[in-house]
Amino acid sequence: MTDATEATGRNSLGRNGTPALAGFRLAVGLLQGAALWWLYRSTNGGEYSRVSAEHLSWPATVPELFGPLAMILVMVPVLLLAGAGRMRIRTLLFWIIGATAFLALLGWHGVAAQSPSEYGPTSRPPFLPWPMPLFAAAALFIGHHLILPADLERKWIAAFPTYFDTAWKAGVQLALSIGFTGAFWILLHLGSALFKVIGLEFLEDLIEQSWFSIPVTTLMFAVAVHLTDVRDGLIRGVRSVALMLLSWLLLLMTVLAAGFLVALPFTGLQGLWDTGSATALVLSAAAALIILINTAYQDGREDNLPPRVLQWAVRVAAVLLTPLVILAFWGLALRIGQHGLTPDRIIALACAVIGAAYAGGYGYAALEPLTRKGLDWMQPLERTNVLTAGLAIVVILALFSPIADPARLSVADQVARLERGVVKPAQFDFRFLRFESGKAGEAALQRLTTSTDPVIARSARNMRQVKDRWEDRDIGTPDLRAQYEVVPAGARLPEGFDVVLPATDVRYRMCLAEGRCVARSMDLNNDSVPEVLVATDGAIQLWSRNGQNQWAQVGTWSPDYCVRRPERPDLRKALREGSVGVAAPQWPGLTADGQRTTLHFRPVCEPGAAD
Asked: Which of 18-22, 42-46, 472-476, 585-589 comes out lowest in average pLDDT?
């Protein structure tokens, strides 16, 4: 047992396992459950809907209060459970006050920045925009395990083994406590089922009551935290086994990452960019390497040195982080250049910045003179972990506060692109401003209603009248004719087809991206009346006049499903080159009671034929 661990019990709550500490944790669990049940009851028992908003009671009637309060009551008691018996009372008190203020700021801003429309994205309790609560929880976990080691050692910056010991122990303890609580509910439901088969439904009725289920859940979690704290040796044993197993996965992940990077010069980057999630993929790979590197390095002590093969895997993996992070920045730069900023891209950029800090520190540690052995191997990694943990908290605070609000920054960038002509009004996402960017988007939409561009102004005014984000309404008069290619060059489509279309028309939605569709006029049924074929990369649509002399889609052709994707025809190219023609049907149509029917053919592929 380390000296830091010996110091954990030296406060007024006593050592782990004492009745005073057990009673405190049980009281925290019960009080947390009661407070959460009170919040839940104010939402009309979870039966909230748009038509029953008037049935809410305080504090659910005040979203700016309810959102922060929900985060505080969920997360702060967990900090109390984790800090009791370990931190000094004074330190714990200041930490709880600071964490409460942190959550209050993030929760208040997250709710206050949203649109007040009852159809907005945060119209339901707890009114919090995702993924802010997840990042807030991560920041609290990091902050708790920066403060606890410092308090244990009575230093501003503790020794790295203490950081490692407290953080990884807490991670295992949290997982076991959640598992214990889940097992409790599985057994409770099993018991209720047993009683129900003999005609006794009291237990089933009891666990369906929120006044029971919420407090008992928080109480069981508190019990689990205390039990795992009492058996400190057991937790360390589980942690050691988990770290040992995970550390050997570093070999696999290092080989995969290295193979991926080595293959890129031969395969090119286009396949990676075409996924649409290149940044998320490479950042996930980098995050996996960072975690696995730490499972192998552990606390850096001589008695925890991994085998020589893992030491080399750690060095190689640390170097691989840099090209992965560079790829993440590259992918982000391409997407931002093409489509501008969005909240998701800003959050991804923040994650890439944190990844760059890890990559720089780990790369430096790996490229130190390789003759260094013993306690000094990869030692700069320790300083990198501590400094980057602090950086992560600062970045999270900036992202989910007015400092660097992703919605505000995205709105400013997207509107600037529209006003500069980088994106056409027909392609601009006015719905993002109305429903997905809060008050910043609403303000920008209001300003666009006075734009000197009549299409922009009309679209903005019409979008402001839309009440539901899923409502399919014509918000303007975008010119579809600029959105697809008419072939052959110089040809014109039949009268009435090549017109300005509303946004609800399927041709507009299908051909929104410029150059995505190819259109050709052909008389397919020899009635001297031309039809129109419109090709995307996956299908060809047939358009013809209906009985009301209006253009309507009457059918679609798709490539043979049994043909592998690389071998399927390029439909746009085929229509552009005139190699699309009429073919007799393999099976004739039928008539039934005078009604004509056609066969809907469903191919059965040979094994392995389709992908």
From this structure: 472-476
Helix (H) or strand (E) holding 226: helix 210-230
Q: Taking residues 103-114, what's their average pLDDT?
A: 92
CB 432 within 8 A of CB 413: no
The answer to which of 297-301, 344-348, 490-494 has the lowest mean pLDDT is 490-494
The helix-helix angle for 278-297 and 380-399 (nearest 10°) equals 140
Q: Is the pLDDT of residue 316 over 90?
A: yes
What is d(CA 345, CA 206) in angstroms, rounded to the nearest whole number? Answer: 46
CA nearest 24: which of 86, 89, 80, 87? 80
522 bridge partner residues: 531
**Residue carrying the six token digits 């998320």:** 280
Residue pair 11/172 in contact by the 8 Å Cβ criterion: no
β-bridge partners, 535: 518, 540
Whole-number average pLDDT of the chain? 84
Give the Cα separation of 204 and 218 in Å (integer): 19
Cβ neighbours for 19, distance < 8 A, ≥ 6 positions apart: none
Query: What tokens does 81 get?
Result: 């459970």
Interatomic CA distance for residues 532 and 530, integer angstroms: 7
Confidence band of 563 (pLDDT split at 50, 70, 90): low
DSSP-assigned beta bridge partners for residue 542: 533, 555
**Residues 287/325, Cβ–Cβ less than 8 Å:** no
In angstroms, rounded to a whole number, what is the distance separating the alpha carbons of residues 562 and 322? Answer: 42
pLDDT of residue 368: 76
Phi, psi for residue 28 in degrees, rounded to 5: -60, -45
Q: State the sign of the Cα–Cα–Cα–Cα dihedral 15, 16, 17, 18.
A: positive
Task: Write the CB contacts of 482 (distance below 8 Å, at least 6 apart in sequence).
Answer: 424, 426, 514
- Asked if residue 346 lies in contact with residue 399, where contact means CB atoms within 8 angstroms, the answer is yes
Longest dimension (CA), the chain: 95
| pTM of structure | 0.76
Amino acid occupying residue 501 = L
Cα distances from 446 to residues 112, 116, 451, 537, in angstroms, run: 18, 15, 10, 37
How far CA 95 is from CA of 146, 294, 452, in Å, comes to 11, 27, 53
With pLDDT > 70 as the criterion, what percentage of the chain qualifies? Answer: 83
Q: Label residue 535 by pLDDT band (50, 70, 90).
A: confident
Mean pLDDT of 233-247: 89
CB 550 within 8 A of CB 507: no
- Measured distance CA(256)–CA(607) in Å, rounded: 29
Do 245 and 313 contact (CB within 8 A), yes or no?
Answer: no
Is residue 503 very low, low, confident or very high in pLDDT (cuts 50, 70, 90)? very low
